[in-house]
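Technical annex B. To support the medicinal chemistry partners, we prepared a structural model of the target in complex with 5'-O-[N-(L-tyrosyl)sulfamoyl]adenosine, based solely on the information shown next.
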Amino acid sequence: MTKTLEEIKSRALDELRNLNDLNEIEAWRVGYLGRKGTVTQLLRGLSSLPIEERREAGAAANNLKSLLEQALAEKQESLRKAELDKLVQQSRLDVTLPGHHVQVGRLHPTTKILREACAVFVAMGFEVVEGPEVEWDYYNFEALNIPRNHPARDMWATLWIDYQNEAGERPMLLRTHTSPMQIRFMEKRQPPIRVVMPGKVYRHEATDATHESMFYQIEGLAVDKGISMAHLKGTLYEFARRLFGRDRKVRFRCDYFPFVEPGVDMAIDCFICQGKGCRVCGDEGWIEILGAGMVHPDVLRRVNYDPDVYTGFAFGMGLERIPMLKYGIDDIRLFYSNDLRFLEQF
Ligand code: YSA
């Protein structure tokens, strides 16, 4: 019996030493220590031995069982550790590998020019204020001398909000210009006023090289005693000089807006054709950047300012047209088509 146990022991330990895989080890366990395993069978067979041999053989067989169980536990542990070491080795940070390229964002060209333009006005003593893009008919039209059914409404192809009041009217819209901010600001403040009010505006119109259906405007307003057309022209000339440089030409022409009297528009000579006429300027040689004028006395009265005491000038400029003129961008639609090849140039 002792000889058999010694043979089993050395065979089992030899086999176990050469195993390197958890599945093989499990098969080894079943073969020796499982329900029908060699050692288990041996223990079961003890009952057939004579009583005097049984005790000694039983102790020896149980010792063998414990020894094999311990050898098994150590082997499993060392294999698990080896596997873990392998995993750690594989996932170790290799600082010599090339890194991932992180794309750095930048400001959109509209944001840049908006900040640049506002900074010029701030340097001239204007403050900066923003307002709502969804607007009431009253502020966008009525308070600006453009009542319902006034033909001037056709100048601003309007996107109306699908909301009806009790009278069955649709009084809400996406603002077509930043001019409603003139009224909102004057309702809240008293002269002297010097303010610029930038923001998005929306028009239901076909797009082309110089027209978008969503674009930015900067509204300007100055109200005080003794403000004249000379202040308007001086301010806008200075703005153009600071943004475009001394060499660009500026043109003022009479224009009509119901909320000013007199009204003008201001244009800069076309950067592409130098005033000769091309696709971008529509063969005019000039690109209009803003409408302006002296605030109409009725508008002043509407916000309870006395037009015999106060006068004011106002302007509304298309923001995207400024970088177009400054950097020679020949299509306004590039600004909002999210093409990185364009955006990365700024
Ligand atoms: C006029 C007098 C004032 O006292 C104050 C403001 C104004 C401007 C008026 N509110 C207005 O919106 N006039 S406008 O329709 O001629 O637009 C002003 C400027 O916005 C234009 O000169 C042009 O530069 C730009 N613009 C107009 N439609 C555009 C556009 N830019 C891009 N896409 C469009 N569809």
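Notes passed to the chemistry partners:
The chain has a mean pLDDT of 92.
The first strand starts at residue 127 and ends at 128.
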